[in-house]
Amino acid sequence: MSEIKIQMDQLQAQRDQLQKERDQLQERMNHLEEEREHLQIQTEQAFQSVDEIDKICDEIWHHANTIHLYSLLSEEESKSITMKEKQKEIIRTTEEILNII
User: Is pLDDT larger for residue 83 or for residue 23?
Assistant: First the structure.
């Protein structure tokens, strides 16, 4: 009878150990799930930021291109030497901006 008691105690100890390991694994899984959700949120925010930056660059490009075109037209129509120089400077600057974008 004591041999059965010993075996039952061993089985109970094994069961307790397995339960403890299962609880630890469950806790780890919960932690990993929280990390996954956090990373998903960060990824979504990063994509939103990229989209916003692309929109801003497009808007800057559009405005710089408009300034460039108006400067080209104004340079052709201008009679003043100093005005032509200023227009050329605007054209060079907007070309640099367009190249950067």
Answer: 23
Among all chains, which residue has been given the structure tokens 């400077």? Answer: 89
| Per-residue CA distances from 81 to 50, 67, 92 (Å) | 43, 20, 17
Residue 64: count of CB within 10 angstroms of its CB: 19
Burial of residue 97, with CB atoms counted within 10 A of its CB: 0-12 exposed, 13-18 middle, 19 or more buried: middle
For 41-83, how does the pLDDT look when each residue is reduced to its tens digit (9 = 90+)?
Answer: 999 988 888 888 888 888 888 888 888 777 777 766 767 777 7
Task: Please tell me the pTM assigned to this model.
Answer: 0.49
Query: Cα(65)–Cα(68) distance, rounded to whole angstroms?
Result: 5
In whole angstroms, give the CA distance from residue 74 to residue 59.
23
Residues in the chain: 101
